[in-house]
Write the structure tokens for this entry.
Amino acid sequence: MTKLDEIARMAARTRAVVIHYGDPELTIRAVSSIRAGSVAPGLIVVVDNSPVPFPDPPHHSVLAMVVRPGQNTGFAGGVTIGLEYAPHIPWEFAWLLNNDAYAEKDAFQRLLEAMARADGRALISSLIRDEATGDVWFEQTRFLPWRMESRGRRLATPLGAELTETRRPSWRSMPYVSGTSLLVPSAAFTAIGGFDRSFFMYSEDVDLSTRSLRAGFALVVAPRSVVVHRTSSGTHIRHRERMVSETSFRLTAKYYPSLLPPAIVLAFATALKRSIMRRQALWMTERFGGYRDALKSRRR
């Protein structure tokens, strides 16, 4: 079997899942970019979480299968629904693509090539670029439990070199790959039990990456697989800061609960500094609100 034949076989056994929320035109653009790729997945499933429905595709040009749960199931819940849909159609790999992103023509093929090199034992992320600036938005990111926030890191790697992480997470640093464009083998979902649906929005990719690393899967960023992301299309900054704060608290509590007291102090100090520098109180008020929400959910 040639390399191209192997990639075609892997593509046919891939299920692409796009979670729709918000602007239908963005979702259509995302799905269209999947279909326009140099290779296409065997099945595309759109999970409609939005109060603004994703339109049924015309019968003469079916873009994807559309699933409507009837409520907003979040990213983790939506992906789970998309992967469980049509169980009679088997899949070996899942490609998760944000609806506010679009893939360059060979992005999916490059993900598959990286997966083949990893012998199916890795989570493979694309290189994510900001649509507005063209700058790299995601290359390698780590969640820092001791201060309850994520930090990006650019590495001095040769152009096009893959970034591979195999070290187990620690209280100092939890590496993760972005769910914006992520290829996951079904073996990883089987080994770790899929997404933790309690992470409704944000940090679900950190949690998935952490459990995958612990189960012996690598995290890989394939820089030749490029996806462009509209970073300003989602949740309002206030709600986003609150939800990120809540899930960051919950991540630390899940994996390193003894760190919570000092981490809260450091996180509030960081938020206070940002509030002063940017002259915006939201960094304090929304972070406090997020931690309060996390505490309420722990008491239920």
The chain has a mean pLDDT of 85. The first strand starts at residue 14 and ends at 20.
